[in-house]
Amino acid sequence: MRDLIADTGAVLMGRHTFQMADPDTLADNYEFQVPIFIVTHRPPAHHPKENGRISFTFVTDGVEPAVRMAKAAAKDRNVTVVGGADLARQLFAANLVDELHVDVMPVLLGSGLRFWGAGQEHLHLETIDVSRAGERTTLRYRVVR
Predict the structure, then answer these.
(1) Of 11, 106, 132, 130, which Cα lies nearest the Cα of 140?
(2) Distance of CA 4 to CAs 7, 11, 140, Å?
(3) Beta strand pairing status for 136-144 and 124-133?
């Protein structure tokens, strides 16, 4: 996880993932202290707390502009996408994914959402790495084009 954090220059996040935590606690506690771009149809009424490292931008016109903004903010570092099957489907459909990292935890959270939707049959993944840290297993794949 330390390498992922060090290599990340910006985070792209879906609205549901953003709302799962108390947004005002992210500035003090979130491991990714970088600009965060939240893809949403509606920005929140209250802008969350920011600090000198973490900032929040609510992007309401789709994943493509959000990725452009995140890449510009990340400069020579990576844009990491955090959470959300819906956001992942949109990114894959727009052909905006280079690698896929899936963290598997032995916790049942409910029925969840399908990660792959119809129209993703063309997607080909190549395994890069499988690693463990405590109870977390991380699967890394390269998107083959």
Answers:
(1) 130
(2) 5, 11, 12
(3) antiparallel
pTM, full prediction: 0.80
- The CATH H-level (homologous superfamily) assignment of domain 2-144 is Dihydrofolate Reductase, subunit A (3.40.430.10)
Distance of alpha carbon 57 from alpha carbon 99, whole angstroms: 23
Q: How far apart are CA 127 and CA 79, in angstroms?
A: 20
pLDDT 10s digits, 88-128: 889 988 999 998 887 776 655 555 555 666 566 677 888 89
Instruction: Map out the domains of the chain as residue ranges.
Output: 2-144
Q: Are 98 and 142 in contact (CB under 8 A)?
A: yes
Which of 134, 131, 37, 33 minimizes the C-alpha distance to 91? 37
- Structure confidence at residue 115 (pLDDT): 60
First to last CA, the chain: 26
CA distance 62 to 39: 7
**26 is written with which tokens?**
């992210």
Residue 139 pLDDT more than 70? yes
